[in-house]
Amino acid sequence: MMYFLTFREAREILKAKREGKEEVEVNLDLMRSNKKEKLYLQGDFVLFPDNSKVEVRIVEKISEDEGTVYFVKNGQVYKAAIAGEHFYKLVPTIPPTIEINGIRMHRTKDTNPLEDTMNKVNTVNPRRGEKVLDTCMGLGYTAIESARRGAEVITIEKDPNVIELARINPWSRELFTNKNIKIIQGDAFFVIKEFEDESFHVIIHDPPRFSLAGELYSEEFYEELYRVLKPGGRLFHYVGNPGKKYREKDLQRGVMERLRKVGFTNVKRVEKALGVFATKPTYPYPR
């Protein structure tokens, strides 16, 4: 069993201890449900439902760390983080996002990862029986939401560390249990070449920022997106607009120009989702 703690739950536990209480009920699944579990306060230890004992001093440290998710497994406390070539961690937004070298994978300012996901998915509105390509899985929220609407989803993730954090994250569990979701580990730039022409009704392209994955914003990659999309199919491309405010650059405009160049039509900005919507014309369609 795995129990999750953030600074919020840790502060609830410490508050109950200061008040002299012997037990406290807190949520232990990162607010994936409204369920609360009963913890017992026994001297210098907190007793979890599986009888794991965690020292109060560790709970105190967690209470001071507002940027990290922790989990308790087999009586041990771990950070939901991976250190390697880059540093990855789950951030205790609701639902969580991933931070890689300090860069968050979801918008969290004036929104949250769930609302961010819904804005993206609603733009193309996958339907029952449709096939969806989700080019950059991350924590899988767009893949999960698309599958919940009845679509068959193929989602691609390049980084095994991201997949590992998705396995830890309770909000991502449907990635690994929903039979309508297939995960491919690999680089979308190359994986997409393996799909047959006109395979998908919908593409959700949510790449890392341009500075980290410029090839996923290239005309060459857009030609592949066009090729695998069915006539009449819908594309949402998350872009953001880094640099526009401060350096007078408009990344979205460049994206839109390249999408039109490879054949997409009805190309337009979607301000609410900070991205671009486009469609592949039905036959006959010019190139």
Automatic annotation (TrEMBL):
PABS domain: residues covered: 157-287
One GO BP: polyamine biosynthetic process
One GO molecular-function entry: transferase activity
UniProt xrefs under Gene3D superfamilies: Vaccinia Virus protein VP39
Pfam families named in the record: Methyltransf_25
Entries under SUPFAM superfamilies matching the protein: S-adenosyl-L-methionine-dependent methyltransferases
Keywords: Polyamine biosynthesis, Transferase
Protein family (similarity comment): Belongs to the spermidine/spermine synthase family.
Protein name in UniProt: PABS domain-containing protein
